[in-house]
């Protein structure tokens, strides 16, 4: 069985993509004031290809208007159930839930003043608006819907959504690497918000066996544990005192390092002069973000700044790449036992 993603949302498509984005804003307003009122929502729902039409508006509007995408999704699931009086298929649910969760993830990831200044208020070009509209015509098979639920980052939807978002971000003013970082972060944060929609829509999706509120709560405990570690440990690394000096922090004296790249035999690469360590590591992570078990080895004499670099880079990763990457800072002097793998080593 296949399901058109727009089947849950659309009827007569609006002519203007800019107007389509305004329809999403209207949905949020109606749901906030009226709840899933069929009569009030029907005229708006009938004008949408997908919730992703909102990406055609100036992206800062998503932040400034604080669109509640999770509430929109739960409200629309209830609307569809009230309208059809039939249980929703997994494909229909995933089509809507993935869009709302992706946009919520994007909204959260975009709350950075530097990014907002670069992006500005430029609306989508006609070409990108067309690409966004075409997302509403994607077909999602039941098997692919299940894969999307269990592993969104590797799903077809993540790939298709990501291609359009990357193009939209570059058109809005971000360079390719920054757009790729933001896109990757959005993809990996999306499952967290998908689970939140499932938990908030138990009545509409209970027949599908999706996570209950209790299951979602347990999942949130795991997420919260990671968030607490990043806030209490990693975020504070650049602020650590230098030699217990009251007014001197590592972030105050940190100087970016240059390194000499080596080949697999430990010999200097002939065509490579000294390069920025930060630039090299960031580029390597971003360009190889699908390479599991990747290792970067940095060698240098004592006092050259390796440990301080790790502190600073761990916090940069927290700010820019989490949850695609989760920075964990391990001090080797605290490792008392070496096992055959990292997990067993850390247990001891």
From TrEMBL:
The lineage of its organism: Bacteria, Bacillati, Cyanobacteriota, Cyanophyceae, Leptolyngbyales. It holds the Pfam family NNH3. Gene3D superfamilies: P-loop containing nucleotide triphosphate hydrolases. Residues 39-246 form the NACHT N-terminal Helical domain. This is NACHT N-terminal Helical domain-containing protein. It comes from the Bacteria.
